[in-house]
Design brief:
Layout: E1 3-7, H1 22-40, E2 45-48, H2 54-65, E3 72-75, H3 88-100, E4 103-104, H4 116-127, E5 131-135, H5 144-154, E6 161-165, H6 167-180
Parallel strand pairs: 1-2, 1-5, 2-3, 3-4, 5-6
Length: 187
């Protein structure tokens, strides 16, 4: 895979209401682990729309990985000013990401008008990528379910890789993080 879309839940869907919630570090660590493996296999571009949650955190992870890896970040929001109603901290994080990404273009260069803009974004993403990495739990569908349905339909006639970060992956990440803490072994 040369190009992958990364998506998943919004923070509220994960019970995360502050950027300094410890769950954010766990999610970012899990995303980083998966992306580094994909970069080692030839991944060149990560595509996000920049929505709050998994996508913004992925953007932050990629910006950090750029110091060590040759990886590019594309941010393609569905419409102009998608961040205008977000909390200030999220808006600032989004601005940093769009300032430092390798490619930025709005799917629709106008303000929000309707759900068709999200559908168009999703269709564009699937048609212009080789696969998707999605933080997803089948027991908690939430907003990613719509993109997942599109991918499943697309896969009926096209080769498209679909990778997941599951609750089990997050549990493993927590355990790995605990074991790398020097204090863990002295308890």
């Amino acid at each position: 895979m040369k190009t992958i879309v990364v998506t998943g839940y919004k923070p509220m869907e994960l019970g995360i209401f502050k950027n300094d919630d410890p769950k954010v570090d766990i999610i970012k660590t899990a995303i980083k682990k998966r992306l580094v493996a994909l970069i080692d296999e030839g991944l060149q571009w990560v595509v996000i729309s920049g929505q709050m949650g998994v996508e913004l955190w992925t953007g932050e992870v990629i910006l950090g990985l750029k110091e060590e890896y040759d990886i590019n970040l594309a941010v393609l929001p569905p419409f102009s000013n998608q961040q205008s109603r977000w909390p200030d901290a999220m808006q600032r994080a989004y601005e940093v990401i769009i300032e430092q990404c390798d490619f930025y273009k709005e799917i629709y260069e106008k303000e929000y008008e309707g759900p068709y803009q999200f559908r168009a974004r999703d269709q564009f993403f699937v048609e212009h990528s080789d696969g998707c990495l999605m933080l997803y739990d089948e027991d908690t569908q939430g907003s990613p379910q719509y993109f997942l349905k599109l991918i499943k339909k697309y896969r009926e006639h096209h080769a498209y890789e679909l990778l997941f970060i599951t609750p089990l992956d997050l549990d493993e990440t927590v355990e790995e993080m605990r074991m790398t803490n020097p204090d863990y072994w002295s308890q």
